[in-house]
Amino acid sequence: MIRKYTDERIKFYLLCAYNYDKDGIYDEAFWKQDIVNLFERIKILAEYACLPYVMRFEKYKESKYKGIYINAAAWCNQANMFRKMSFTEFCKKRGMSKKGIEVFGSDYTQYENSGMKKGAAWRYLDEFSANYHDIAKKYFNFRGDLV
Description:
By secondary structure, this protein is mainly alpha-helical. The protein has one domain (7-139). It has eight helices and two strands, in the order βαβααααααα. Strands 1-2 form a two-stranded parallel ribbon. α1 links the parallel β1 and β2. α2 packs across α7 (120-131), α4 (87-94) crosses α7 and α7 (120-131) crosses α8. The two termini are 18 Å apart.
């Protein structure tokens, strides 16, 4: 509906890690679904040329996937990064050492094969992707300007 009235870039705030259910249970099923919901909303906004701004409810710190929340916020909340690279690219780039970026640039495969240490952002991505390959495949490889 908003595109009927303007074609300007618009930013929407996305709250995540908040359990709206009256029971308020934060279990593995909740965290998985919350991350799916977050990335689905991010993708929908990108499809309408809108910018997401991720706001994390403090409970995200209790999730074993808190790194996904941290990286999603860092990726989305920097509009240039969101438009320029996918979530996967962002996490890998963020997880490379300064020397690794100088040597390999954006060649993540070469970096990984070199044996250089992966930083936290890359490790969080790998851990989540290993546990939820289908979610990572569906949501982690689009760029904000190419949806």
